[in-house]
Every structure is written in structure tokens, then in C-alpha cells.
UniProtKB/TrEMBL annotation:
Annotated source species: Streptomyces spinoverrucosus
Entry's EC annotation: 2.5.1.19
GO cellular component: cytoplasm
PROSITE patterns in UniProt: EPSP_SYNTHASE_1 (PS00104), EPSP_SYNTHASE_2 (PS00885)
Name of this protein: 3-phosphoshikimate 1-carboxyvinyltransferase
């Protein structure tokens, strides 16, 4: 496919001349925004999303729901402050075409919504979206009563022939390649005639905090959900059929997108405050408090937010990231700058993320002089003195931010297509230079 000029543009990653000392307001969570949009669209009354993330992934989600008939209006929240989206649920209908881009949340969460619509909904997206696993959602929806035309690969592109309602009921899936299969079925489950009972039969299940986020957000809009943690069977989630409430929800900052800024404090021996860091959250990025502390920093959760301080020393780490896979690129970048080796485990499924993240991190860090070895389920990283060069990003937002972290400590790093951060953090270059006081 021909690349547009932005794809090949090089961004000189700023080199830090000293310790950072900054407050960084991180925009809303992608995962929370896209769940909130789906739940508000399926509700029986209007709802509000305050401080939603506006990035490629969330604008694709909003656009897709609008295509199916949902009203999403710009506005200020009910208390008159802050920008907000007002979501007006409506009878879902086709024919419609949904562009999923390369958003896992859009390609997985919306086919079950489309099965509830009246009419055909066609799903298409970026070339990479054809390679990302979707079989868990497609096969499950067929068992639950949906009619879907695909090319037999269990992936995009496809058409869901919505019948206006779906039977629902029990279904077995193997979600070892993506937790989003489970989340997708649970989110629409209250609107299926019999609800849904999802039984995961695979060997591993990544990203459990994201499944907890789905369950918590379902409960917050009035759904009844039984989970393994609430006394149910292991690997079984059950959603009772019922109407969903329209709520007024303020979206938390995206803690995974806070990662590069926290890493900057760690790498430069500086200090970063992230305002509005939630005291309780299901976001996987909250694990950074523990992981980056083990790697040499310290943190304090105050009334204003999270204050993270680097010590000037970075230690290697041996850690299973299966629950928090999306943090891997940023942790790998910091690990490449540490004083001892690191082993990152439990993330084989990252080979099917925005790009093959294990291959991409290995190649790009090694091309700067690093020593990274890909293992069966992760990376082994032995720090070595790095040098400048081009850091390719493979249309992966987290590769771009990982390269920027390395650039803080290594002169002459150029990030290819930093604009790819628009997937979840369109303002990244400005926030980054702002943090550095440039
Ligand atoms: O449900 C979600 O919002 C997400 C779940 C995870 O997906 P996988 O389980 O496919 O890794 C995560 O990596 C992704 O960034 C967001
Ligand atoms: C894996 C990710 O995204 P997606 O929602 O497209 O799966 C990610 O953001 O790291």
C-alpha cells in the first residue's frame, strides 16, 4: 500500500538536557471511552460522556455508532463544565458501513452491536485489521444466533446481517489471543434475549484488568454480571438480559498513555505529576506505579494526582506482563536503558497487536545498538550503549512513544511517523515537548 507523506516523515526525538520537572494532563482513556460509547448507545435513555478521549480509535467508534443510527452530539456536561458527548440511543439500523481503522475495540466490540441492528452492517478497516484475530467474536455470534458473511478466515472484512434482535445464551470461546473477545460479548450481552454466558476454554487469558473494566462499567449502568471473582465458575462470565441506564460519566485519564511521561521521570531522574490519577481504577496502567518503582523510581498518589520521581538509576526487571500487555513497548524502552538485564514474559499475543510488537521492538532497539532477544512469550533485554538512528514505528502508537523514551537518553533518535500516536494520543508531540520545556 502506498504510504502517505506522514507515514515516512521523521521526527527528531527530543534529547533531555536535564531532569524533567513537569505536570502533564493526559487525555481520557481509550478503553474507557470506547466502552462508555457502546454502553451509552445500547442504553434505554440518553447519557453523557465527559472529557472523552478524542483520538482516531474513539472517533472511529463514535462514527460507527452514528452510522448505525445513534445520536452523538457535542456539548458541555450537565453541570455546564467541561466538554462532553451527549449520546442519544436510537433503533440500531443498517445498511451501514463501519471503518474500524486498526482499533481492536471497534473491530471486536461492534459486531455484537451490529447483530442487534436491523439490516446489514459491513465492517472494513486498515490492512492490518485483516490480520488481527476476530474468530472468537465471529464464531460466538453465530452460535448465539447471528448471520455473518466473511471470507472464512475468521477475520475482517465481513458483514453482519443484523436481525433486530439476538437470541444470546451460553457460548464457549478461546480468548487466548485477545481479552477483547470476552469484553465484546459481555458489553452487548444485556441486550440479547437470553443475555449471555461466556465460557473461556483457552489455555491463557490476557489483559484481565480490561475484562474487569468491562464488568465494572456494565454494572455501573445497571447490568447484572456474575464473574469468577463474584463467586461464579472459573473462566465463566454471565450477563442477565435487561435495560441499561443512561449515565453521566467522566472519563479517567489514559494511564497507559501516561506511561511515556512517567518513563521520562525515570530516565532523566526527574519528576512528573499526572493530575486526576484515579485512586481506584481497572486500567492496566495503574500497574506502572509498582513496575516503575521496581525499576528505580518512587511514587506518591496525592489529592492532585500521581507524583512520580526518578532516582537517576534504572534497574532491569523480570516481570509477567500478560495482564498489562499494552505497557510492554514502554517498559522495553526503559529496560534498554537500565543497569541490568530484563525479562518481559506472558505477552506472546502482542505479535497480533497493532504490529508484531515483539519483532518490532527487537529490531528497532537492536538497530540502535541494543541487545534484545525475542523469546517464545516475550523479550529478553540486555542494556548496551545505544546510538542514534531511525526508529521505525509500523503504524503502532506505542512504538512511537517507546522510541521517544529512548530518544530522551540517546542523541540522534528519529521517530518515523510520530503522527501514528493519533490512534490514542493525538497531542503526543506537543505534550512531550511541553514536558521538556521546549
Ligand atoms: O479491551 C481493551 O480496551 C483492551 C484490551 C487489551 O487487548 P488484548 O487483550 O487484545 O491485548 C489491550 O491490549 C488493548 O490495548 C485494549
Ligand atoms: C493493543 C492496543 O490497542 P487495540 O485496542 O487496537 O487492541 C493498544 O492500544 O496497545
Amino acid at each position: 500500500m502506498a504510504q502517505n507523506p506522514a507515514d515516512t516523515a521523521l521526527w527528531p526525538a527530543p534529547h533531555a538536557s536535564g531532569a524533567v520537572d513537569a505536570t502533564v494532563h493526559v487525555p481520557g482513556s481509550k478503553s474507557v471511552t470506547n466502552r462508555a460509547l457502546v454502553l451509552a448507545a445500547l442504553a434505554s435513555e440518553p447519557g453523557w460522556l465527559r472529557r472523552p478521549l478524542r483520538s482516531r480509535d474513539t472517533l472511529l467508534m463514535a462514527g460507527a455508532l452514528r452510522e448505525m443510527g445513534v445520536g452523538i452530539e457535542e456539548g458541555v456536561g450537565p453541570d455546564g463544565t467541561g466538554e462532553a458527548w451527549r449520546v442519544l440511543p436510537a433503533g440500531l439500523r443498517g445498511p451501514a458501513t463501519v471503518d474500524v481503522g486498526n482499533a481492536g475495540t471497534v473491530m471486536r466490540f461492534l459486531p455484537p452491536v451490529a447483530a442487534l441492528a436491523d439490516g446489514p452492517i459491513r465492517f472494513d478497516g486498515d490492512p492490518r485489521s485483516y490480520e488481527r484475530p476476530l474468530n472468537g467474536v465471529i464464531d460466538a455470534l453465530r452460535v448465539l444466533g447471528a448471520r455473518i458473511d466473511d471470507d472464512g478466515r475468521g477475520a475482517l472484512p465481513l458483514t453482519v446481517h443484523g436481525g433486530g434482535a439476538l437470541d444470546g445464551g451460553p457460548v464457549e470461546i478461546d480468548a487466548s489471543s485477545s481479552s477483547q473477545f470476552v469484553s465484546a460479548l459481555l458489553l452487548s450481552g444485556p441486550r440479547f434475549n437470553q443475555g449471555v454466558e461466556v465460557r473461556h476454554i483457552g489455555s491463557t487469558l490476557p489483559s484481565m484488568p480490561h475484562i474487569r473494566m468491562t464488568v465494572d462499567m456494565l454494572r455501573a449502568v445497571g447490568a447484572q454480571v456474575d464473574t469468577p471473582e463474584s463467586g461464579g465458575e472459573r473462566n465463566v462470565w454471565r450477563v442477565t438480559p435487561g435495560a441499561l441506564l443512561g449515565r453521566d460519566l467522566t472519563i479517567e485519564p489514559d494511564l497507559s498513555n501516561a506511561q511515556p511521561f512517567l518513563a521520562a521521570a525515570l530516565v532523566t531522574g526527574g519528576k512528573v505529576l499526572i493530575p486526576d490519577w484515579p485512586s481506584r481504577t481497572t486500567q492496566p496502567g495503574d500497574r506502572l506505579r509498582e513496575i516503575f518503582t521496581e525499576m528505580g523510581g518512587s511514587c506518591e498518589l496525592t489529592d492532585y494526582g500521581l507524583v512520580f520521581t526518578g532516582s537517576g538509576t534504572i534497574h532491569g526487571i523480570d516481570v509477567d506482563l500478560g495482564d498489562v500487555g499494552e505497557l510492554t513497548p514502554g517498559i522495553a524502552a526503559v529496560a534498554a536503558l537500565a543497569d541490568s538485564p530484563s525479562t518481559l514474559r506472558g505477552v506472546a499475543h502482542l505479535r497480533l497487536h497493532e504490529t508484531d510488537r515483539l519483532a518490532a521492538l527487537t529490531k528497532e532497539i537492536n538497530e540502535l545498538g541494543g541487545d534484545v532477544i525475542e523469546t517464545a512469550d516475550g523479550l529478553h533485554i540486555r542494556p548496551r550503549p545505544l546510538h542514534g538512528g531511525i526508529f521505525h514505528t509500523y503504524e503502532d502508537h506505542r512504538m512511537a512513544t517507546a522510541g521517544a523514551i529512548i530518544g530522551l537518553a540517546v542523541e540522534g533518535v528519529q521517530i518515523e511517523n510520530v503522527a501514528t500516536t493519533a490512534k490514542t494520543l493525538p497531542d503526543f508531540p506537543e505534550l512531550w515537548t511541553g514536558m521538556l520545556g521546549a
